[in-house]
Design brief:
single chain, about 100 residues, alpha/beta, three-stranded parallel sheet, 2 helices, 3 strands, about 10% strand, globular
């Protein structure tokens, strides 16, 4: 299993506001890498996903963020625990929702 921690800001489909250029570009590149791995490693039984941890109260997320680190990690672990081989190549949210690439 390969799990990449990414951001919804890397979603091309969900980008309706622009900005955050370097951050968005780096996350979009990471997401493409995960999709490539998912395609290449699926025949070997790997499940490769990208997951958005939510807006988390960290140094980066700041005090106004919606989630504590514990809430984010708990959600990410639940998603990982319930993955199936057919989930490979998908973009998930910490709360179990699927996100658009």
């Amino acid at each position: 299993m390969i799990v990449s921690l990414t951001s919804v800001l890397g979603s091309i489909t969900a980008n309706t506001q622009g900005g955050f250029y370097g951050y968005r570009e780096s996350k979009a590149a990471l997401d493409m890498f995960v999709r490539n791995l998912a395609v290449e490693l699926k025949p070997e039984g790997f499940t490769c996903i990208a997951i958005h941890p939510g807006w988390v109260k960290t140094d980066m997320g700041g005090p106004d963020a919606q989630l504590s680190p514990e809430e984010s990690v708990s959600g990410v672990r639940k998603v990982i625990d319930h993955l199936k081989p057919e989930d490979t190549g998908k973009f998930w949210s910490y709360d179990g929702g699927k996100l658009p690439w």
